[in-house]
Records
---
Amino acid sequence: MKRQIPLLIVIILGFIFVIHVFVPHKASADFYDWYQTWIKAISPFMVLLGIMSLFMVHSTKIKRKVPNWQYSVITLASLIGTGAVGFIWGTQAGTPFMWLFKNVQMPMGATMFSLLAFYIASAAYKAFRARSAEATVLLIAAIIVMLGQVPIGIKISKLIPETSNWILNVPNLAAKRGIAMGVGLGMTATSLKILLGIERTYMGGGK
Amino acid sequence: MSFEVISNFIAAFFTLSIFSFLYKDNPFYKFAEAVFIGVSMGYAIPLIYQDTFIPFVYRPIFVEYKFLILIPALTGSLYIFRFSKNLGWLSRYPIAFSMGIVGMGVPLSMHSYVLVQMRSAMLPVDNINTALIFIGTVTILLYFFFSKEHKGVYGKVTNIGIWFMMVGFGASFGYTVMARISLLIGRIQFLLGDWLGLMK
Amino acid sequence: MADKKMNFFEKMQALDRRYIYLVVALAIIIPLLVPFNSRTYVTEPTENIYKKIDSFTGRNDRAVLLCFDHDASTMAELFPMEVAILRHCFERDIQVFTICFIPAAKPLMDYALQTAKEGYEVQSGIDYVNFGYRPWAIRIPIMLKMGDDISEAVEYDDEGRKLTNLPIMKEIMNYNEMNLIVDFAGSAAVLSWITYARAKFGANVAAGVTAVMAADNYIYLQTGQLTGMLGGLKGAAEYEKLVDVFACHMEPDENGVMQPAPRDFSKEIIKNTWIKMSDIKNRMHKTARIGMNAQTVAHLMIIVFIILGNIGYFISKRKKDKVN
Amino acid sequence: MKLTFARTGFFLFLLAFSFLLLPQMTHAAVNESEYIVENLSTADIPGDDGSGLVISWKPLPQERRIIEYRIYRGITPDSLFFIGKIDVNVKTGVMGDVMYYYDTDYNYFLDTQAKGKLRREKGQKKDGSLFRRYPRDVSIVGPQLEHYDILGVIPEKDYYYHNEKIEVVTETDTTVYAGLKLHEFSGMYKKLIADHVYYYSVVAVSESRYYCQHAESVIGIPRENAPEKTDRFYAAFVEDVPRLQFEWKLAVFADDHLDHNVYLLHKKDFDKFNKYLDEKIQKELNDIAVKEDSTLAVYTPKSQNPAKLIFARYCGYPYTPSQTAFVNIVEGKIVNDNRDIDVKIDVKNMEDYLFVFSFTDRTGYETFSDVVSANSTTTDQLPIVPPFMIIDRENDKGDYNRVMWGKPIVYLTNSTYLNEKKTHLQVNYDFKTNKNYKVRNIFFKVFDEEGKEIAYVNEYYQDFKIKIKLPENGNEMNTLFFEMTFKCNNDVGEDYILTQILQYDEQTQSLAPGDLYLEDENVDDWEYYIYKRNYSDEEFRLSKKVAGTQREVFDNIRYGNVHFKIVKHFDDEKNLFLVRPSFSVRMDDEKKATIASNLYPEEFEKTILQYEDEIANYVASKDTLESEEEIKNADDAIEYYSKQVELMKDHPIQKVAASFNNPKERIKFLDKSRHYAKNSFEYKIVKSNGKGIFTETNIYIREGVEPVSDENIYLTSYTGNGIDHFFPRSNWFNLDMLPAVIAALLFGSLVFLLIKKAKKGHDLFIRPIAGIQEIDNAIGRATEMGKPILFVPGTSGIGDVATLAGLAILGKVAKKAAEYDTKILVPVRDYLVLPVAQEIVKEAHYEAGRPDTYDKGSVFFITTTQFAFVAGVNGIMVREKTATNFYMGMFWAEALLMTETGSSTGAIQIAGTDAVTQIPFFITTCDYTLIGEELYAASAYMAREPLQLGTLKAVDYLKVIILFLIITGTILSTTHLTFLINAFPEK
């Protein structure tokens, strides 16, 4: 009841879905539509997990007064504040809710993303060491492609953009294809393991 | 001070607070991080309520009287028991129902990740480049063969695979640089242009 | 003496990341604030779009459609291309249409038109038409219908006028006339133009994409399904240059007053022309090139870092080997 | 110090959130009157059926910072309902001086998304006149129905089975309706009624969502107009048949069009015709003017139309009508009994005639095209339509037919020089084919200007490009001549040759492809029109119009059918909307009458009786009638009703329907018949130059199939397609997926075999994987340093296999950590991963025998937003000073953000991901990286259970097979044998 039935649900549904892929018939398409409406009805409740966990983590921090607990108060306050603003004034353009999104969340997201430019530079500096033949190859390929993207590359040598293109279209393609095939096999295997009930990590532990 | 100036000021404040992490962890960053996490989660709640709960749960049941939807809705609410000690197992039902779709993954990933890729790996070899792509693909596949240790001649062959991968990784790395710097340029243009008005 | 040198490289080895960050920041901020001149090399995919658009010069029975398929997050890379192409069209009297299928693109599209229009006496409905926003759901039906009759597919322009009544539409019927579509996106959105407009009706399709997407689209250039491509800021910079060198070319008349003298594309001219940044008054006409300067400096700086780091690495390794 | 941080934090927080109130306050001080839109006006839309209005107003200046304009409509000025809005970009404002809103056609009126109760619009006083959208409340919406044309769209099932029979009794008679609840409609759409008065108003909403005052409402009255004039009409005269052919362009608005007509006009009557036209236009203007001002005199045109009708066709169905027509001239006459056409025409003097086309609409307006004369041509100048056929499209759920014709086509699309010397040229090509001809090889022969063959390419694998070596003679090749031939699975014939030139183009400065010729025919000159017709429509409609290079079309046939019903009445006690219970099933065989039925069998019977009464009445009245006209009318009526009664009683469908006792069974049968009639199509093709020079084929008739007897067409299952109608079938197996089935079965059995082997205790060797062996050391290091371990199980959901692999590794790592009594931190981005990860860590502690050390807070959720999650993780790394970081699972751009922070804190980092784009960053910044598949292998490797090991081994064995196939396939394809490569799916 606690474990067997959910497992059975996965296995039965899983096999139906295997068949669904091969059967284009109306009945099969209808089954898929039905499943979709049910999944959509289940999905909104997931957010409760996140909110509950967030509250548990931060309220514990506040209660125990762990270092930096004050920031947990800020987190919870912004969480409640943003949610409330959304429910009170709505979520259309021009509401305080969208103002928060545009002037708080979006700039921070974009800035976080743009930190990558700094990190990519420091990673290149710190980690690109010609320790071994392989590392050297990686380093040289990176430099050529980097040069190939800016006008200075062609100034140094006409060959640089050409080589850069060649690297992207030949060895890079081979690498991507080889890895993708391996990953594809691995994915198939893992799906199959779930389907056969071998892999049941997703159920969590317990009896 | 117009509304827009204030808005830009706040956006700039948070932008700089995040950037300050580059120097070191500091109260500004901690503050921005706390607000970021809170706001981003708080942002999701009304949207999920509006875009999934209302159309897929509330409306079917209470407006269209499709009472069958009560089953998945109740199943979904079992998630709440996740943190309960004794009833935690109940939350496995919605998870199991959502996992069923993995079944599709078996034939589909076989089809699109393996068979389709195999077709493109069988293209006629008519010049040095196609030959190299062929060699690269085969040696990389051999690298991912787990039943034989990489030793001797076989080790040499898989080593070629590693070389191909390394060139590929280097290329990916170098290739991403430009896009990431463009993002930073975008941010700096905001700070210098929209906020400070230094760029005219 | 030798010891001191070692120390320097060793120091370089253990250099605090923050110095690197500082250099990165400066490498980007300075070129943005103080534009300098640099050479832009024009690549073939960019050249092809330019030549194709330029071949429509002054023709009433040809038009370009620009499709805006992106939101503000990729604006830094795509916006300069859009302005550059629009400017080319306005300068050379080429009829141009704009359309978008995602709501977030609508303001960007208006903004691009407004920016590019500055300084040109162009009129909506005569020199260009903004088709406005159409829902994503009817994207493919519109694409297909355009192969038959554009004024039936779009019906009204953004200002609510019936397309059939607009002077610009007089000789424009379908893809035979609106012969080039340029799609701007940070995704593979151009694919649907290839499958519907190109494969079904033989329209020419070109793409303006972010740098990350450029490699993915390269294959369509090779198979000829894409007429040309602008890749990231670099593509935009190249196009800006082409517009300045050919479409906006000025020559002194007998009185020595500079007069517009647009010229046709030629590889020779582009090789020998040097345009000074300071000669371009409107900042929007050189954004991409300035951005590209920052890119170049940043790329070079990263490469210098790699080299410095490696020199340090080898020297300290040799030192270690000696000690052992 | 700490407290000051906190104080600063709170201060800043309050500061940020206090700005939220700002937008609410900023509006208080403004002058309200400046925010009312000006020049609000309405205008009738020309060329429509009187259902369209355009509302226009002057947008407020940009500095007012308006975010949207909301439009309201009502039938009285004191209650206007929200109908739509136009969003505006606050920064750029509106381009242009006028804004428009179109209230045209059928558009949204009501569905279940509407709110339950009627509410006043924001900012309206208690007695304000603006309301929000129509609510779901029948008592409010019901009275509105009569002021609009409301079209209800009802899914079949709801219409048939969820209706309630409602009798509406009025003084004169009783009408029976089918009552439906709102949720049984998939939507209701409204159209304005001609000459009805509507009121409109507009409200501007400012950036801070302040609803400004509304503009004074204005009146809008849509007017019925004559159809729009077509701007293209062509006539052609095929001398040798003799036959007249016509082609025209449809109007944009064609909802109320009834007929397409062609008239013959003698040149001498041209002036008369113009006079007739002038009067017609005057009449139209007068019609509207009289409506506006009833005191005006009504204008009556005097002259007659001198042109003679020679062709007329019904076009009033809701699909795109056909745009070509031809009439045969037999013995100097054009005759059509159905339309009473009998016109003499002098074939020898065709130049004396002019032709004119017209649209007529339901109100009787007629609009003529410009007058044209016919281009003379002969049959041998008309295009030849290649043989075509229709089959069901395979591998689908039954919503497409496949229409295909002709032999494959190949054409050049582009060319590029590959080197500076211009001796290597890459030419791109494209080809189109259909199911009958599977292209094996395409042969390109290239000739120079002197006709010397300079290149020959055998394209055995089609990758859309060929490379040509040009002779090195210094001067550029200006023109290249291409001859292209095919080898297919079916013989295309020796003489099937396509030719095309590549010519130097000054403007683009490259070799550009010229026109494509198939023998002497310029392929680009022609287009194919696919016409189709089902059992429910009387005329053919246009399905697709495609370029001359196409060889195949998939004709979409929508699987589900809905019922469109006019909604005029309601029942507010029962909360029902009322629609007619009668519905059409199909047309009879002659396509003259509709076979209709009724939801309620007793009502159907009643109608028959009613008709029979009418017949009896007319027969009885005939004795008393005197004038011939009256008698003729009575005869016509009798004939009409008799025909109806005959169809209702004797038609096979009706007979069978009547035989059911169970009403549900009866409806089911009728539904099936209707569905079949709607979705079975017959096809024909027209090949045209778009200007009247075209050839129209006959209806396609399937060969080698017995015609289905009349009885069966109605009664048997859907498989009885007959010989001309095609009903798309729902297929049970997707053949495209066959390779995947085989591969999956092979894989499944390998897994089965190897698991069995592993269970028997065979030692299955797995090579050591670098990263995995280091995991223990890394945990050990954290223990030594007394610092926690960070484990990020990817940033995607539980359904992602990479996440599952990551979680499996988490189990092992957590167990080790518990054994060493080291703290482990697991931040999670996905809701569902959270409980799973918690269970895993908890269980790991139990397995290690240290349940006491399990901390509930060690596995925690941060947020779902990508970069906010990273911000959180980075904070943890820096503050908790984690000594060892694991990243196992799927990652996107956030990968480097985490690993670089990790490496700056000096932590040991081990990563594993199948995200190809992120592996480079992991490799450069982490100490060990599991690349791609190694991530999946790792969990099996660490688990060492037979089930996991067996599967891993099975993957390895499959890999051997794949390698063998790839190598063989490449060798074969290189030696021009493409059967193996073609056995694999393309996408």
---
Amino acid sequence: MLQQYAHVLLFVGLGTIFALGAFVLSFLLRERGHDPRTRVPYECGVEPVGTPRVRLNVRFYIFALLFVIFDVETLYIYPWAVVARPLGIAGFWEMVVFIAILFLALLYAWRKEAFRWE
Amino acid sequence: MTLQQGVFDGFAVLTLGSALLVVTQRQILHCALWLIATLGAIAGFYVLLGADFLAAAQVLLYIGGVMVIMLFVIMLSHVPLVPQESVKNAQWLPALLACGLTVIGFGWTIGRVSWYGQELPIATNRGEIFEPTTASLGQLLLTELALPFELVSLVLVAALVGAVFFTRRPES
Amino acid sequence: MVPLTHYLAVSIVLFGIGLFGVLARRNVLGVLMSIELMFNAANLNLVAFNHFLSPYRLWGQAFTIFVVTLAAAEAVVGLALVLAIYRHMQTVNLDRFNLLKG
Amino acid sequence: MGIIFPAAWPPLARQLLVMLGQCAAILAVINLTVMFLIWLERKVSAHMQSRLGPMYAGGWHGWAKSIADGIKLLVKQDIVPTGADPWVHRLAPVIAFVPAFACYAPLPFGRQLAAVNLDIGILYVFAISGLSVLGILMAGWGSGNKYSMLGGLRAAAQLVSYEVPRVLSVVPVLLWVGSQNLSLIVDTQRHFKWFLFYPNPLVGVIAFLVFFTASVAECNRTPFDIPEAESEIVAGFHTEYSGIKFAFFFLAEYAFVFLSAGLGAVLFLGGGDGVLLPSWVWFLFKTFLLVFVFMWVRWTFPRFRVDRLLAFSWKFLTPVSFANIVLAGLTLHWLS
């Protein structure tokens, strides 16, 4: 099994080397421009207004939060799915209870209008 | 000096190096990126210990989930690009002493126990065992550990309810 | 064949670094990240003992999965709190969280 | 592969070299396929809008258009905007590309043609493809531009929201195969017993549709391409990127499109399972069929609004895939 993961490590290593190699190649080949105006953040051509860190709304956080909760859930569904056949009907009802409880959590988030934006 | 020991040393250096950078970096987002490197190295340790499902779980959950939320909060909380206040608070010296004592204490205890320096696994006198773990984990989780398995869903619901409560706009 | 004590040494030092981070960092997000370090140090110990002492009965790994789940739940609620505090007090500096002081 | 090595080399070096050769072969295959996909997308979208698309670059139907693009991006000036975080800005494309490439390790290009026969195949692919969200967030933060920050957050919220139904929609396939190994999933579907309709057509079709929709959203393609909606926030998280850095975001996107199509073929259409032709030909045929549907969808549907798009995943796709898992469990135990 270790040999397979050595192969995966090689994949990641080769991908990184390929990316860095392309960067170095581009560094050698590309043209040099030192006009400071080209380094101004792009805002459809007009002068940038205000600080780059504009006030952002919190609503994006809700989705990342739900994602982690349901990602943890998928982490428990995968081992069950792999051994579902030998486990038989008992394991299946156990899993249905697990999924039902978390489905309630989704309904709670839905009812609390977590998704509606003012 | 087998290949396995070499890879272990590489992961160890990566883990401890990036962990040190997590606690000392000035810009909080760089801390988060170094923490991602630490979590990746620990996933590598799990592979070296034959826990393949756990390594995927670590990458899927910690790096793909918890760290994404951490980056969200950092971006939403407008941490300045060049932070002004110093990284460490007033009590950093006593904290350093306390942690040093803890590490030395743990090190001393594992030095004194009976199996120190033993090579092969104590229970089985054969070599290390590397087998796929998902099936046996599923079997274990759903039969012997059925109760904690169901309690976990309650913990997740509680976490979700709490977090949704805090991020909802106060109806002031 | 990497002996067990090497894994324990790495996890002990990692735990020490995490503990230092919790005690000495000024930014609350830094503290939360150091807590994640301590969680991972404990997980590494669990998996190492499981691999060396009972490779066939994966109780150590099952326990680690529960630890990872609780760490994720803790991070979710903790970060929601930090965001709520930030929205209220416009700062993530731990020293300024002293509203409850008498 | 019976490659003859000089006897002096230790077996370890020989093994590492064979592995390196496989990785390099797959890297070459992916680069060529991505270049072909970019060209194909230009031609297909052109002909759908009854125009010709690239015609002159390199003769017949502008086949060298992608190569020309690549060279152009290679020699363009590398601009790091002021007020940006230089290292995070430069590292973002690498973090976006490497997972896209590492996901191809367990993918079986035909029967028993997978580079690495991983036991946790499908979970490995979802775990590693989850890392590209980090590259997008780093691009958003590192560019020091409020449009790319907003675009980065939107793209991350979308990718994260559609990861859940995508991961859940594959569970019925695991139920029937009893393993996450992609090569084993392909072998179980031999002799035309594809999971799209084999044990339970209803569950199979629902799972395939949810997986396909979530994959379209995961690749940031219309109708789910809010993050780089040209009309709204300029070019989203890769506003400040030009030259080779932009090329890697582009490479990562098309590598994910081909990967999602490949997964769809392997999981639901029995990739590599077909009559006369060799298995890898069948796999490529099914994958390019799905890639064509990806492109077809792009030029037919209008774009979703942001909150409607994110709510669609949580309010429709996730409940449907939960119900699908319960249905698949019932089918499994009703059959046995």
